[in-house]
Amino acid sequence: MGNTQQPQPAGTGASGAEAAAALAAIQRQQGQVIESVLVPGWYWWAMAAGMVAIGAARDSGDLIVEAITIPLAALVMAVLTGAMIPAVRRRVQVHSATQPGARGAAATFGLILLLDGVILGTAASLAAARVPYPATIGCAAGAAVIVIAGPLVNRYLGRLMLSQARQQMNDAPQAGGTA
Amino acid sequence: MRTARFDELIHAPTRLEIVSLLAAAQWADFKYIRDELGLSDSALSKQLSTLESAGYVEIRKRFVGKRPRTSASLSTAGRQAFEQHVAALQRIIARSQQDPEAGPAARGILGH
Fold first, then answer.
1. Which of B6, B17, B88 is opposite residue A29, by nearest beta carbon?
2. Phi first, then psi: what are they for A165, rounded to 5°?
3. Cβ-based contacts of B2 with chain A (< 8 Å)
4. What is the pTM of this model?
5. Smallest Cα distance from B23 to chain A, Å
6. Is the dihedral of CA A156, A161, A166, A170 positive or negative?
């Protein structure tokens, strides 16, 4: 290591205020890295629009509209979803110790289950009750869920990663050190 | 047991930002670091070279298609030095809270 430090003379280093400012700067940078790997807000609205388009196409009863709109919307949603991770990974990858882990996976899986349950449950119930446009209403309900719950899950993942990063920072070295 | 060690090389404001960013990342693209920290290409190159010379940072150059891409990551030594520096900062803060009247030298802030 090129910077093997020797004990420094008294009077160098930092004051308590400087140290606190430095730690705040470190935490700010961690927050920025984590923020930059989270899904952007517009993504949830794009997914919601795609769902409503699929539902409306399904209810249109027009085979040509269905044949064009449903695969197209599904393709756009799949491409956007797929692009989220590679787009981020080309710029920065969060340290493995900071990854959200099992709790993050559970939150993401829970969101998918909730979404499927709301869409299928609403659409099936409305269809059984012979309410018009069941798929459109079901997908609109799913769209509302994703627009509200998506950013909440996103924020939860961000908080999880940030707390893990700070935990790691506090735990790794012995703060009292072998002075 | 790892020690608390105040590292003057890391503590310089711009390098502290770079190392903090890299500590949170597995690796980061050169342009990402530049944009996040609002640095010029030359300023970032200079700081990364300093950190690389100290053995704290590893620079990786590769091609994605025909485009060259440069990324940086903290080396094991760099991560250890960063963690020791953080511990030293935490200790400075703890000691200044215990004895707010004492000056830096009296508080023994150097982590050694």
1. B17
2. -65, -40
3. 172-174, 177
4. 0.75
5. 7
6. positive
pLDDT, tens digit (0-9, with 9 covering 90-100), for A140-163: 999 999 999 999 999 999 999 888
Contacts of A167 (CB under 8 A, 6+ apart): none
Contact A26/B86, CB-based, under 8 Å? yes
CA distance B24 to A125: 47
Give every strand in the sheet of B25-29, ordered side by side: A92-94, B25-29, B67-74, B57-64
The closest of B56, B68, B70 to B10, measured between CA atoms, is B56
Residue B12 in contact with partner chain A when CB distance is under 8 A: no
The pLDDT tens digits of the residues spanning B67-107 come to 888 999 999 999 999 999 999 999 998 888 887 655 444 44
Query: Strand A92-94 vs strand B25-29: parallel, antiparallel, or unpaired?
Result: antiparallel
Q: What DSSP element (H or E) covers B64?
A: strand B57-64
